[in-house]
Amino acid sequence: MSQDSSEPAESTATEDTEESDLIRARGGDSDVFDRLVAPLRRELHAHCYRMLGSTHDADDAVQEALLRAWRGLARFEGRSSLRSWLYTVATRTCLDSIESRGRRALPIDLGPSSDRAVVDDTPVTDVAWLGPYPDVGLGDGRAAPDARYEQREAVELAFVAALQHLPGNQRAALLLFEVLGFSAAEIATMMDTSTTSVNSALARARVVVTKRVPAPTQQQTLRAVGDARLREIVSGYTTALEHGDGDALVALLTEDVTWSMPPRPHWYHGIDAVTDFAVRVPLTGCGSWRHSTTTANGQPAVGHYLWDEAAGAHLSWSVTVLALRGERISELTSFIGPEHFAPFGLPDSLP
Predict the structure, then answer these.
(1) Rounded distance, CA 250 to CA 274, Å?
(2) Structural fold of domain 218-350
(3) Alpha-carbon torsion 266, 268, 273, 274, what sign?
(4) CA angle (149 as vertex; 144, 155 as ends), nearest 5
(5) Which helix (H) or strand (E) covers residue 333, if one does?
(6) pLDDT of 37 strictly over 80
(7) From 3.40.50.2300, 3.30.70.3450, 3.40.50.300, 1.10.10.10, which CATH number describes the 157-212 domain?
(8) How much is the pTM?
(9) What long-range pairs does 17-23 form, CB within 8 A, spacing at least 24?
(10) What is the C-alpha to C-alpha distance for residues 335 and 303, in angstroms, rounded to an integer?
(11) Which positions fall inside the RNA polymerase sigma factor 70 region 4 type domain (predicted)?
(12) Would you say residue 195 has pLDDT above 50?
């Protein structure tokens, strides 16, 4: 009884502290401002990644948004929560970035799949490629109970890739409503538009995303598979790659499996094409592999390292994100480049 009766007092005390801190921050205390926004940085970063499709762009957007918020703090009148206001600033920052940079893509967006391995495939540098997301520490956030997507579902690769096919305003409306639980009226205020426009953007966005995002979600699939079986599947995949065992690898794949490797433009669809690529390139044509397991986009992932004779070590090569259907791998997306490793806390090399 005493615990329940203390909750309003504790809540009031917290609100009083936040209001006191806001007054100090408006007065120019940057340390207090940093303390106020620190608990929100992670979820703001995830929001910016969903909007922009790049961890590095999300880094820049969060930094720019918090700088804008600090400079404009005197204009924050407290009519909404600090969290809502920061999401407003972050969303508008992302919309500015989308307008200047356009959307990010995967190889599947650029052309048809290849039937046979392209051994001399070279990177395409004039495309803004979608990137993987290090989801360690990404919790459930503070979305409303009726938000459609869980926080981890909303960083799944298929979902973020689908978002890239939406105009910026539709992307923002969908994320703010379906992922973060803001109301249409709140979103209209945040985006300086009408509730009718928000509802129209939501309707259009849902059509596109529903067509492009498979069901069940990876989160639902992974829960059904279970942690122990998932570890077996990932271990089977890495062992097959490192031992050059094509039969073992094929046994783990669905018949309609896809494998893509941004920034390389060619991709493969179906067990025959993927097998031809796997046997001719990573299993026999690349040399010695090592790996470190991780998670990316709410999905199992593997950091792959390829032997470099000059360095005398296995150097960072790609972060491969796995999608499952049942207990088989239905999609492999290998993000090639050492720049992907640091955000995951993965080392640059292995022995």
Answers:
(1) 9
(2) Nuclear Transport Factor 2; Chain: A, (3.10.450)
(3) positive
(4) 120
(5) strand 328-336
(6) yes
(7) 1.10.10.10
(8) 0.92
(9) 18/82, 19/78, 22/76, 22/78, 22/82
(10) 9
(11) 158-206
(12) yes
The pLDDT tens digits for 119-171 are: 999 999 999 999 999 988 776 555 566 678 888 999 999 999 999 999 999 99
Match 């967006």 to its residue by tokens: 109
* 322-299-45 Cα angle (round to 5): 125
Mean pLDDT of the chain: 92
Cα angle 139-159-264, degrees, rounded to a multiple of 5: 115
Among 72-81, 118-127, 141-150, 243-252, the range scoring the smallest mean pLDDT is 141-150
Question: Which residue's entry shows tokens 């097959």?
Answer: 240
Q: What percent of the chain has pLDDT over 70?
A: 93
Tell how far CA 262 is from the center of its chain.
15
Q: Which band of pLDDT confidence, cut at 50, 70 and 90, is reported for residue 2? A: very low
Chain centre to alpha carbon of residue 337: 17
Architecture of domain 7-102: Orthogonal Bundle (1.10)
Residue pair 142/43 in contact (Cβ under 8 Å)? The answer is yes
Label residue 129 left, alpha or beta by phi (over 0 means left) and psi (-120 to 50 means alpha).
Answer: beta
Sign of CA dihedral 262, 267, 270, 272: negative
pLDDT for the residue numbered 63: 98
| Structure-token pair, residue 326 | 């049942």
